[in-house]
Amino acid sequence: MIRRLACLLMLAAAGSVAAEAPIPGTEACATCHPAETGLHARTRMARAMTPALESAFGQNLPNQPLREAGDGYSFVYRRTLSGIEVAAERGGDRATGTIEWVLGAGVQGQTPLVNTGSGRVAESRVSYFPQLHQYGITIGQTAGASANATAALGWMQAGRDLQACIGCHSSAITRDLQPVIPGVQCQRCHLGAEEHLHDVAHRPSNPGKLPAPEQVRFCGNCHRVKPPVDDAQLENVRFQPLRLMKSRCFRSGRLACTTCHPAHQDAVRNQPAFYNEKCLSCHSSPAAHRDTRQAGDCIGCHMPYVQLHPALRFTDHYIRVVKPGDLPAGVIRQRGTGG
Ligand code: HEC
Ligand code: HEC
Ligand code: HEC
Ligand code: HEC
Ligand code: HEC
Ligand code: HEC
Ligand code: HEC
After folding, report:
1. What predicted TM-score, i.e. pTM, was given to this entire model?
2. Cα of 262 to ligand 7 centre, how many Å?
3. Cβ–Cβ < 8 Å for 40, 264
């Protein structure tokens, strides 16, 4: 029996029928919408969850065991036909688990889900950071030696947390939380896509047609509109909707995610002119600047890069005049150094 993940979304009510039908994947859309399907397949959202053996985590495993700092547990990985087996061990203390799925497209970081038996699943203590070509402690978990072998496998997830975790990184799961359609695929943004498959006249929802503030909240179902801790956390820069909503630009009621992010594509990088044009569509009269900044890189000054971790960099979507001391100087990064 299949349960559709749409229930995490605000517009979900419409899609809760037909629970028993097999869920069609993106291939069902390709015949009539080849352009959108081809573009979307190349995005990071489409690859937000991958089978362990195909992931960068699974393909770069070193021959020597990895070990925690402070004389902690060591981790031994073994690739099998269906996934990766992991053992955490120190002296006689040993715990094992299996990894079928890895979260994150592998651009910033990749974190496995470790099945520790009898339906219990942990967020792995070890992640892979492709840009650094390094395995390390998962962001959010504390470094150093673990208390015991089971704890070394990772953070045990309560059912609700696991459902949320897989829910943001996939498009449909079974009742026992097995992903049926991994990654953020068509029907996750276009609710009613299955009815549309049976009758094309039944149009699925299109977030491009939502008023700007509603679209921002729609994307915010996964990218977040509420701070998990409080408003003072630097980590909140990774929650683009939350930050964007603070901007005076947003309060115009006309600024949507799709103003700057064409649907079915990753963020446009290393093309300042692309964004300048968006800014100037609202800020041309009177000219935003009467000096040379007029021809400069608007986002470079008004949407700086923020480095949260050696492997994690985000764009501050709170569009504003960034004052000295607003953000710790050490985390602000210049643009133009690659993607
Ligand atoms: C048999 C052909 C066919 C298939 C298969 C199909 N569509 Fe469509 N789709 C259409 C047609 C026709 C339209 C209307 C186009 C128009 O009027 O411009 C449409 C429109 C849409 C729209 C625009 C809705 C709007 O109001 O803006 C979306 C989104 C969409 N389809 C998504 C999907 C998804 C997702 C799938 C796969 C689950 C899919 N379609 C499968 C034919 C198809
Ligand atoms: C079902 C949850 C979900 C929804 C809904 C969603 N996203 Fe995402 N999005 C993700 C995840 C997960 C990632 C991270 C993919 C990765 O790197 O693993 C992501 C990544 C992105 C990226 C980054 C790609 C890059 O260049 O790094 C952009 C841009 C983006 N989403 C925009 C949007 C927009 C715009 C919307 C609304 C129209 C939206 N997302 C809706 C989950 C979602
Ligand atoms: C509320 C939705 C949501 C939940 C819950 C969630 N993620 Fe994500 N995750 C995202 C989005 C959106 C991104 C991309 C942008 C970002 O990093 O904020 C992302 C990015 C990632 C990345 C890429 C590296 C990084 O940190 O950006 C990894 C790895 C990841 N998530 C793992 C997990 C794991 C493991 C869980 C559960 C234990 C989880 N996520 C729960 C939405 C979510
Ligand atoms: C992260 C959310 C997201 C996902 C996933 C997604 N779309 Fe879309 N889609 C959008 C948005 C936003 C628009 C509106 C674009 C606009 O109006 O600027 C859109 C528009 C469309 C349209 C209408 C295009 C038009 O010119 O009116 C079609 C058709 C479509 N999507 C099909 C698909 C198909 C097929 C897939 C899967 C392969 C898919 N979408 C996956 C967000 C998404
Ligand atoms: C949809 C229209 C729109 C877009 C697009 C837009 N803005 Fe704005 N922005 C506004 C409005 C409205 C205000 C409020 C001030 C005003 O009325 O001039 C504002 C205010 C600002 C301010 C002053 C903020 C403050 O707190 O004093 C800055 C700086 C700014 N925008 C920069 C940008 C940049 C840079 C971009 C492109 C990345 C951009 N804006 C895109 C509408 C927009
Ligand atoms: C005013 C333009 C603008 C708007 C509106 C906007 N973005 Fe962005 N976004 C950017 C820029 C610029 C980048 C960084 C591109 C680069 O890396 O140079 C970016 C990058 C991203 C990324 C990649 C991770 C990061 O933080 O660098 C995600 C995810 C994202 N945006 C999601 C969203 C979502 C969701 C919305 C709507 C709530 C949104 N954006 C609205 C301009 C915008
Ligand atoms: C070199 C950094 C820099 C660049 C590039 C830059 N700005 Fe600014 N901007 C500032 C500063 C600093 C201020 C604060 C007021 C001032 O010093 O003029 C500001 C103020 C603003 C304001 C608010 C004006 C007001 O009256 O409140 C807007 C709107 C704005 N910029 C838009 C833009 C746009 C659009 C671009 C790209 C065409 C851009 N900026 C490029 C640094 C920059």
Report:
1. 0.95
2. 24
3. yes
